[in-house]
Amino acid sequence: MTTRNFDLIAFDWDGTLFDSTAIIARCIQAAVRDVGGKEPSFEEASYVIGMGLMQALAHAAPDVPKELYPKLGDRYRHHYFAIQHEINLFEGVLPLLAALKARGHLLVVATGKSRRGLDEALQTSTLAGVFDASRTADQTAGKPDPLMLQELMSEFDVPAERTLMIGDTTHDLQMALNAGCPSVGVSYGAHDHAVFEALRPLYVAHSVAQLQDWLLAHA
25 to each of 20, 30, 40, 131, 179, how far by Cα in Å? Predict the structure, then answer.
């Protein structure tokens, strides 16, 4: 019997499982342009990935008045849904998830995406049935609020010390800290991993292969 250190493994979505960082950043830039705001830099647009949509757009476009937020959100969704078919899983993600399921881990998603966006991604990405549960920012609260992790832990009655959060942003790692959970960072997503140290991840993986090796040895 395999000994597990973690019963529940929670994955962020964009930039962790899905190679979507660049496309999301470009869609944020385009949405801000559409409503007449000052276009954020690519780095500024990338920074907000992982937050809930409106939280992210407000942060990326501080000069856009609040009365234009609904239009800003609509323009982001317009651009994103037009090109979401171009987004793919990172190479190696499916074997990684299969290996973890074979060891009996519960696999869940904790994401800043909307419920609609995540459901559409799950339907088109050969991931149907892989995850045991998921929470999105519009269902709960945007990262780094710990609510989505807390709900997932409660659903399966798994304590924080037996739950591992994996993500590519400081928002993910801070959420884990706020929930009392250990975390693992990945450096191939939206945020520079040089800033991860202060958030005390157990490990920072620089590829999906490294992530799988670490998880199979330590999770």
Answer: 9, 9, 9, 26, 27
Please confirm whether the linkage preceding 159 is cis (ω < 30° from 0). no
Question: Which residue in 169, 161, 171 sits closest to 186, CA to CA?
Answer: 169
Distance (Å, rounded) from C-alpha 26 to C-alpha 186?
Answer: 21
Percent of the chain topping pLDDT 70: 98
Q: How many CB atoms sit inside 10 A of residue 83's CB?
A: 11
The pTM is what?
0.82
Using pLDDT thresholds of 50, 70 and 90, give the confidence band for residue 125.
Answer: low
Of all helices (H) and strands (E), which one includes residue 204?
Answer: strand 204-205
Q: What is the DSSP letter of 167?
A: E
Q: Residue 17 has which token pair? A: 């499982």
Helix (H, G, I), strand (E, B) or coil at 26: helix
**How would you list the strands of the sheet with 204-205, edge to edge?**
133-136, 106-111, 8-11, 163-167, 183-186, 204-205
